[in-house]
Amino acid sequence: MSNLSPTTEAPAELDKEPLAPKVGLAQPLGAGAVTALVGFTSAFAVVLSGLTAVGANAAQAASGLFAVCVTQAIGMMLLSYRYRMPITLAWSTPGAALLASTGAVVGGWPAAVGAFVIAGVLIVITGLWQRLGNLVAAIPVEIAQAMLAGVLLPLCLAPVQAIRTSPSVVVPVILVWLVLQRVAKRWAVIAAFATAAIGSGISIAAQHKHLDFAAMVPSVELTLPHWNWQAMIGVAIPLYIVTMASQNIPGTAVMKSFDYQVPWRAAMTVTGIGTIVGAPAGGHAINLAAISAALSAAPSAHPDPKKRWTAAFTAGALYLVLALGSAALVTFIATAPKGVLETVAGLALLATLAAALTGALASEKHREAGIVTFLIAASGVGFLGVGAAFWALIAGLVVRKVLSHRA
User: Fold this and answer.
1) Is 77 in contact with 316 (CB distance < 8 Å)?
2) SS3 of residue 114 by DSSP
3) Quick one: DSSP state of residue 301?
4) For a surface tag, which of 56, 91, 100, 133 has the fewest beta carbons within 10 Å of its beta carbon?
5) Three-state SS at 155
6) Where are the alpha helices (DSSP H) in 184-263?
7) What residues form the membrane-spanning segments (predicted)?
8) Each residue of 277-294: pLDDT tens digit?
9) Is 286 helix (H, G, I), strand (E, B) or coil?
């Protein structure tokens, strides 16, 4: 029996519910900073490799990196503030990997820029016309993932090849990445990049190489787009498909897992226009973030879901700062030992390659279609001036259709 009489009031502290811990701005600001730093350092090497492969010189590649940083920064700041959601944008890493595997484009760099514009237009149309989005979503998962895996394979082989050309710099990079994969996976690629930077710096100093400090000032190199059917079919369409299938669609799923419904039309319009605007400066494509989206949308960013948008806004603001370092990065990498950039890019893409291979071969019924798609995309062999990725997609769909009717 209680010792309190009916007229005795319980102490006030017994009636109060426990208060939720107060969270200041430090937590979402920190989450936003991590989102930007992880997103930038883990994939900028892929962007530079892709732009260079399709014809950009050092200044144009630096301009392209600057462009995607600025356009995605402005886009995520607008979307996160307008909708009060942690909507995180990113450059299309799978798209950059596609460019790296495509190589020289008929019509050169201006034709590649024209393809970037077309990809942006298609993204905008996807937001305004639901049927196009449904058509992309209807591409079988195993075919889309197999095409992506084939595109990634040559890039992920780069660290192995670089061991032969620059072992003194590349081997420590791989070892640091491996150790961090075990103890702090999130920071593995960042640590690998830091190791590569230190090793390259030592190599540059030891060989008395000259750094062009004037080239480290960020600048925008505008290119007039040129359109031809080879670049449209071989670059624009595959770039659009991998950006949608590997970034935008998974990005909405990641956000939904944290109970956020991404405003699809607005997101596609903003990222599509951002891609179009950034293309003449060399930017290939921006999109909804997929993996890094969780860094700003998870409870670790803020206990209150309504306040996590500040993390994405912070990430956008920091990307504007990181954009200023794009030219310096390109200048430094151009002087670094051969294969260092490719090593960091390859290590950054290993997890994506593993996930893509898993998706490509998951369905036993359609495994042959997946492996055919993978092999053609990995071959890098194009026809009629059109890259391997497009033909891999077509071949995979044909094989899947033919074999789906077998006994």
Assistant:
1) yes
2) helix
3) T
4) 133
5) helix
6) 188-206, 229-231, 237-243, 249-257
7) 29-54, 61-83, 103-125, 132-155, 161-180, 187-207, 227-245, 266-291, 311-333, 340-362, 374-399
8) 999 999 999 999 877 787
9) strand
- CA end-to-end span of the chain: 77
What single letter denotes the amino acid at residue 12? A
Reading the block at residue 255, the tokens are 């956000």
Instruction: Concatenate the DSSP letters of all residues of 330-385 into one string.
Output: HHHHHHSPTTHHHHHHHHHHHHHHHHHHHHHHS-STTHHHHHHHHHHHHH---BTT
Within 10 angstroms of residue 217's Cβ, the number of other Cβ atoms is 11
CB 289 within 8 A of CB 39: yes
Measure the CA–CA gap between 80 and 88, rounded to whole angstroms: 8
Tokens 């949308």 sit on residue: 297
Residue that wins the pLDDT comparison between 38 and 168:
168
Indicate the domain borders of the chain: 26-156+219-337+351-405
Q: How far is CA 66 from CA 43, 144, 176, 293, in A?
A: 14, 29, 28, 21
Q: Which two tokens stand for residue 55?
A: 């014809």
pTM recorded for the entire structure: 0.76
133-144 burial string, b = 16+ CB within 10 Å, else e? beebeebbebbb
Residue 92's Cβ-side half-sphere holds a number of Cα atoms within 13 Å equal to: 38
Two tokens at 8? Answer: 């005795």
